[in-house]
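User: Hi! I have a protein structure encoded as tokens and I'd like to know what sequence might fold into it. I'm fairly new to this, so please keep things simple.
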């Protein structure tokens, strides 16, 4: 999608600090980190949000979770981490491309506080 920030990051038109890439997934460090380690994982196809996951594209979600496990292992996040996906305006989604945040290296209590 031409005007999608994450599509531009995947294509290399917008710079990012890559932490992982394969044929399905691109992951990069968040530019406004909410934890000492904060990476964003996106599918390499444009899926608008979690509300648009279906049987034809759900493989990308599985591949993202595999990538998250790989990065967590590589980054030695054995104390734990949080994975977050926001959906829609009321859900806090600010970029209209499915993405998952991996946050770690601090205590992530719930509810946030």
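Assistant: Happy to help. Inverse folding works backwards from shape to sequence: for each of the 113 positions I chose a residue that suits the local structure. Here it is:
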């Amino acid at each position: 999608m031409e005007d999608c920030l994450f599509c531009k990051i995947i294509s290399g038109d917008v710079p990012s600090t890559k932490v992982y890439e394969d044929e399905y997934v691109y992951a990069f460090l968040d530019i406004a980190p909410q934890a000492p380690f904060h990476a964003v994982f996106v599918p390499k196809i444009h899926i608008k949000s979690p509300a648009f996951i279906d049987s034809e594209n759900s493989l990308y979600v599985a591949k993202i979770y595999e990538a998250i496990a790989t990065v967590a292992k590589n980054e030695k996040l054995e104390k734990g981490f949080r994975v977050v996906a926001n959906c829609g305006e009321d859900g806090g989604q600010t970029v209209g491309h499915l993405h998952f945040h991996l946050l770690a290296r601090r205590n992530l209590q719930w509810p946030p506080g």
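A useful reference point when you look it over: The first strand starts at residue 18 and ends at 21. Feel free to ask if any position seems puzzling.
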